[in-house]
Amino acid sequence: MTLTEMRELLAKRDIRLTRSLGQNFLHDGNQLRRIVDAAEIQPTDKILEIGPGLGPLTELLLAKAGEVLAIEMDARLVDFLCERFGTEERNAELLTGALESETAKPDESATFHLLHDDALAFLKREPRDWRDWKLVANLPYSVASPILVELAAGVRAPKLLVATLQLEVAQRLMAQADDDDYGILTLLVQLDFAPREWFKIPAACFFPSPDVDSACVILERRATPLLPENLRASFVKIVKRAFSQRRKMMLKLLKADWPKEKLDAAFAELNISPMERAEKLSLEQFVALTGKLFNHE
Ligand code: SAM
Q1: Residue range(s) defining the domain that contains residue 215
Q2: Domain end marker among 171, 205, 221
Q3: How far apart are CA 121 and CA 139, in angstroms?
Q4: 1-60 pLDDT, tens per residue?
Q5: How far is the CA of 21 from the centre of ligand 1 (A)?
Q6: Does the model's pTM come out above 0.85?
Q7: Positive/negative CA dihedral, 31, 188, 50, 111
């Protein structure tokens, strides 16, 4: 869909875009193909797309995948997508049956499910097994981080995340210790996902052009979890507390939740300086610290 076609279509249907829903549509064919190529889609793949909008990415996904589930919040766009792809919208209950009964076959055209819902609410409300799925989405800016945190956490996360979002959020997702962008979001997602690569998408590739550039990030689910499931909540608690005041020594901050003696012992055993700030500690060090503090609990 070219920019001209997109403008005409929106005008014809009298659709005024809603800023709060992050409705910046990607019209650059090269960038769309690059996103799809990054997902290395096989004919049996199941793809979750959040925020299909007018469907430029959906069209490419349907051409390659075995099954696509798209979740769109805006009823006007759901109506348009139903017409465009000759489908009916589903509600969450009908969807459950459909997802369970269908297995993608490589020689058939893709099965398309279109759900009219708030994707973040849906993910929270209905925890599902996404292990066989890949997320490929140009995410709405306002909820991109919570959606990724929600999807990435836990043993039932998708195997691959290919997400387009604000450049600044992308940099946080791909950061390493001591980078300016390294922080809570980095650690919560990288606990389960290894960053693979990312590329920038200029603001001019979207209609309307947002104020900032975007980037597509590709993250792969770790084959072996770095922490057992029962330590996940402690990891999250440590990371959030440690970064609650970025410039402060993390040992001091952690005293709000753990006794000093336990912290001193854990820091000494792991050879972490008591003066260290959270931004200097690697993911592996946070994981090790979680193990030590949990054993001391
Ligand atoms: N995929 C399209 C594209 O690349 O042109 C549209 C992407 S646009 C950045 C984000 C889309 O997400 C919009 O269609 C918007 O209506 C939808 N959206 C916003 N918030 C949503 C939510 N919470 N759940 C599902 N869709 C949402």
Answers
A1: 3-221
A2: 221
A3: 15
A4: 889 999 999 999 999 998 889 999 999 999 999 999 999 999 999 999 999 999 999 999
A5: 7
A6: yes
A7: positive
